[in-house]
Write a structure and sequence with these properties.
By secondary structure, this protein is α+β, with helices and mostly antiparallel strands. The chain has 8 helices and 11 strands. The protein is extended, with a radius of gyration of 60 Å.
Length: 521
Amino acid sequence: MKTRILLTVLLMFSFVVPLEAVGINRGGKGSKGGHASRQASKPKPSNKGHYRPQTRPASKPASRPSKPAARPAPKPSKPSARPATRPSAKPATRPSAKPSPKPSTRPAGKPATKPSTRPDKKPDKPDIGNRPDKPTTRPGKVPDKKPGKPDRPDIGDRPGRPDVGDRPSRPGFGGGNKVPEPPGKKPRPPRPEWDKPHKDKDHKYTKDTVNWMSNNRDTVNKFDRDRDRRWKDIDDHWRDRDWHKHWGDRDYRDWRRDMWHYRGDRCREVWYHNRHHHYHDHFFNVHWWGSCYWYPRPIVYHHCSPWWWWRPVVWGTMGYFFGQALSPDPIIYDPGTTVVYEGDTIYINGESAGNADEYRRETIALANPELEETPMPGPPELAEDASEEEIAAANDSEKPTGDWLPVGVWALTQQEQGDATMFLQLSIDKEGVVAGAYKNVMTGDEQPVAGQVDFKSQRVAWHVGEATQTVYETGLSNLENDVASVFVHFGESQTQTWLLVRMPSPEMPGETVKLPEVTDK
């Protein structure tokens, strides 16, 4: 402890006495010499122009200044030891606790101690056996029978029901005795199996579809690769200024041929992507027409093909069906090639046909004939006992005998590209009224179709549902091909060119696409 105090005093003393006083220089060495002390004692020149003195002192002083005899008295030291005794300890006893507010003894009225035992348990509940018994018998039983009502016969006494084999059977289900015909009525002939000639056609269609898709896969893929280049060439020529003036020249004929070939490849593409859907089994067949909302009554054609509405048509069939109303020579009215809109003028075969807006108004009027009710196209109706000759004549596609001529089921799609999701069934009656139906396979929308044919110009126009200002127009002769262009008029100020692609049915063999004949005219 003393050593610690002494070291503390020396440390404090070192800060008070200068280092030189105790013989310690700033270089950290004693007074006997050292480079640092000698350098510190040399005079420094005031400037660079002064010279060192020529003579040094004669001799060093004989003795150095003596050190002080005694060091200054140190600061008073701390007590060498702690006091021997600490202050007296805390009092041995703490002050007495606070007086309790509660009395030390309970009131005299209450017992000083709690009872050592609880009172006896509650008396036991009476045993089940000691409870009053329920009455073993209820008051009075229901009488076995009501007064005045005879007893029911036992099962064995009931009259037996006729066996299943003894019941009279329904007509056509076999077994048992048939219901006798009323007196004086001839017996009903058996119903013909109308679907017998068509049972194997769907199976054959599936096989033909697989073969057709295999044979045309490379063609469809090549068309998809070359689509952009081919369409750019066609579209650039069509957008040339005053393109109608080129009608009939070499450039026009080459352009028209390229356009029709493009449409043919577009038709193959639509077929390739839609033939496996078998739309003919779901839309516009004999069952579908009986469920459409605008004709909600059953339709039974037991003598015709279920795909009668899907049949293609040729110009000779149209001439036979319409008779004298239709010219024997077809007029080529092809939207987008022989008929074009440029600015405010419409050109047909390179010549002006009038104002474009006025022409659209005429087309809208043609597509909206006055009809008492929505027409319903269908095959000729025959009696149930019709002969085989009559049935064969009704199903003759080349010489139709009914009131309606089906012109097929068509996919409505854009010219350049796009999937086919909208489909139309079109039929025409002898007066030129157009009827049919529209189906959108994406939205499920179904609407009736109504329109009319202008036999003079051989134009045909129609509208869908209640959209009377959006009308579709094409040439009548185009409907005998497998692909046809169609004008879509959006009111009186805008027109676009789309495509109609005929959809094949089981009765239509998978062959090459039928296109208009390319002529030099």
